[in-house]
Amino acid sequence: MDVIEAIKKRRSIRRFKDQAVPEDVLKEILDCARLAPSAGNRQPWVFCVVKDPDVKQKLVEAALKQEFISQAPVVIVVCADPEVSASRYEDRGRTLYFIQDTAAAVENILLAATSFGLGTCWVGAFRETMVRQALELPPNLRPVAMIPVGYSAQEREPVRNLRPFEMVVREI
Predict the structure, then answer these.
(1) How far is CA 170 from the centre of its chain?
(2) pLDDT, greater one: 159 or 150
(3) Tell me: the pLDDT tens digits for 38-88?
(4) Cα atoms found within 13 Å of the Cα of residue 113, Cβ hemisphere only
(5) 36-59: burial string, b at 16+ Cβ within 10 Å, e else
(6) 90: left (phi > 0), else alpha (psi -120 to 50), else beta?
(7) Which structural domains are found in the chain, ordered by start?
(8) Is the pTM of this model over 0.85?
(9) Is 29 left (phi over 0), alpha (psi -120 to 50) or beta?
(10) For the chain, what percent of residues have pLDDT higher than 90?
């Protein structure tokens, strides 16, 4: 699948089959995350791969009881160290660049997973303190996004209700 097809096919999936993600596929997806662009090539990210059912249940609780998170065979929690970005870019790195960088890595995960026929969902609604405790993160790491990954147990329509092209593109 080429990248344009993956972009157009990707959908948020919230129901997963009870089927493991092959380790080589998971490694390839994580490598694609690692290849994302980052400000000054600082790469402030750390990818926590969660398979343990007890830890996944803690993530469900942290994510306002979004149960589908625990149904995925794998949850990738994308974390960042803001000080890695701040070491070069000071406050802008500490408050913005680490977020932009991890967002690029998240999108790479979503698209790579789609290209392997896997479903994902970008989860940003969670209590950061609870995720930090569930993963036993050191104080320098902030969880930014959770991504359940697995084989989809639902069909999604290919077309979403998008704002018209003319409303979102402005030529100057």
Answers:
(1) 29
(2) 150
(3) 999 999 999 999 999 999 999 999 999 999 999 999 999 999 999 999 999
(4) 29
(5) bebbeebbbbbbbebeeeebbebb
(6) left
(7) 3-153 (3.40.109.10)
(8) yes
(9) alpha
(10) 95
Residue 112, CB-side half-sphere exposure with 13 Å CA sphere: 22
B/e letters for 106-119, b = 16+ CB within 10 Å, e = fewer, are bbbbbbbbbbbebb
CB 29 within 8 A of CB 149: yes
Q: What share of the chain is helix, strand, coil (3-state, %, to 5)?
A: 50, 15, 35
For the record, the structure tokens of 104 come out as 């690029």
Closest among 136, 139, 152 to 48, alpha carbons compared = 136
Alpha helices in 68-168 (DSSP H): 68-71, 82-92, 98-115, 128-135, 165-168
